[in-house]
TrEMBL record:
InterPro entries: UspA (IPR006016). Required for resistance to DNA-damaging agents. This is Universal stress protein. Residues 4-141, 173-313 form the UspA domain. It comes from Alteromonas arenosi. Pfam families: Usp. SUPFAM superfamilies: Adenine nucleotide alpha hydrolases-like (SSF52402). Keywords: Cytoplasm.
Amino acid sequence: MSCFKHVLCVLTELQNPDEVVGHAIHICQQHNAKLTVMLALEPLPPNANMVMESFAYIDTYESIQAAAEQRLDSKAQEWREKMPVDTVFRYGHSFIEIAKVTQDIGADLVVKLAKTDLIDRLFGHEDMRLLRKCPAPVWLLHRNDSQRYQQIVAAVDVNYHYPDDEVATRKQLNQAVVIKAAQVAVEENATLNIVHVIDEQVDMVVYDGIVDMGAHAFGGDQEQTEAERQAAIQELIELIKGANPDDVIENLRIQTHVIRGNARRDMPELISQLDCDLLVMGTVARIGIPGFFMGNTAESVLNQVNCSVLALKPAGFSSPLIT
């Protein structure tokens, strides 16, 4: 079953672009998807026009743009030897331009090399902003990743002790996570690990001045809680089976992991222990809070992993492109 139909591969520079484009081509070939390669360059520093004469500033801007477009066209000729490729060039704040292009061309997946910072955390500030704003799933690649995955982790939150509208969103997002992860696992002949952490720390969130602790989410019998979560995961596995032919499911290796602890600490640790190549997870929680686009737990986990990440949002979720 095809998982993606139109992939937008994003470059933020043209030094050694073949790694990320090669990965995007691999995904497209696996899913028979269309490929568009976008070059997104940040604008000149805000004070550039203050230290340069106006004509020199304009000439520099235009020469950079012309050189970048020419280089992109040249590389595209090489990529087209493997498959058809469209190209797009944008000059501006990258996360905004990426989100706009994704929307304009109807891409259902964005593939991008994750930025690294001085303390070697996987996700830079711009990547986090992209995850908040992009209308499509975002696949952030870890540098030097293999194009073949062996261990895929689907991180799910099957704690459903929340208001009905939030429970519906959580269930839909969990379903999207496991189905996407299973589809990639089938394509890559990889093991699918479905992971859930029973978070024993109280998660207090303020809703318009009212503290919501997630009623009944942290109390009750431990065995009952674990059985409840295992049952919810089994429902997700049955969903995977229902969405794929029997011969496909027979070859899909599924392992489940339900542990107790703190999700922000123990989820990254388990992902490391599993030697995860790709983490598939949802990035929106507590959607009832205006302007709160990414859950603290998701953002904390993303900042600690050193593997590729496929980040999903609930169906129909959108946010303003400009902040």
